[in-house]
Amino acid sequence: MENELLFATNNAHKLREIQEIIGDSYHILSLKDIQLDIEIPETSDTIEDNASQKAQFIFDKTGRNCFADDTGLEIEALDGRPGVYSARYAGEECSFEDNMRKVLEEMDQIQNRKAIFRCIVCLIFEGNEYLFEGRVEGVILPAKRGKGGFGYDPVFLPDGFDQTFAEMPPYLKNGISHRGKAITRMIRFLETLE
Fold first, then answer.
1. How far apart are CA 116 and CA 47, in angstroms?
2. Which helix (H) or strand (E) holds 121?
3. Partner of 70 for a Cys bridge, out of 50, 75, 90, 177, CB 3.0 to 4.6 A?
């Protein structure tokens, strides 16, 4: 199929969110769609290198045009933590809840709540690598709000909004989020190649 892209992830939440962002311009294939059941390495010290490592790993295995993302929540008062370790901040086998709980405990009694969500998307297209960044600034709330989204969405309030990512309808979150911005930049770039 024309305009197919393989997304190097095993995360169903991310897959659904990215297909919503991209809409009909590209059909996004998951690793499951191509029957590739494999753990993707994430051993780098930066989100840029992690995104690149994941995309290159899947490209080497499949030879297909593909992309990977890595996201970090960088909290000013925590010297940028959890950063590259956002997905496993509370430990290797931890849940989203465990990660959020750890952040909220560390932020207890801290006045400066500023944070940035950063997403790097690495695209490997026709063998060449391209990086796209999206970022959104906001604050960490003292308690969770909302049932939607995933990850740190219930505790992240983006600047200029009165809803957390977990309270927003998907179309609104995807329009302003770090992942939404990075993916949109990737799609705009791909359109210049057509």
1. 13
2. strand 114-125
3. 50
Q: For residue range 66-108, what is the model confidence (pLDDT) as tens digits?
A: 999 999 999 999 999 999 999 999 998 899 899 999 999 999 9
Could you tell me the domains of the chain?
4-193 (3.90.950.10)
Report the residue count for the chain: 194
For 7-29, what is each residue's pLDDT tens digit?
998 888 888 888 888 888 888 99
Residues 131 and 51 sit within 8 Å (Cβ to Cβ) = yes
Q: Check residue 186 and report its DSSP letter.
A: H
* Residue from 71, 72, 61 nearest 34 by CA: 61
Helix 12-22 × helix 178-193 angle, to 10°: 50
pTM: 0.91
Name the token pair of 175. Answer: 């329009």
Catalytic residues: 70
| Both tokens assigned to 34 | 């191509």
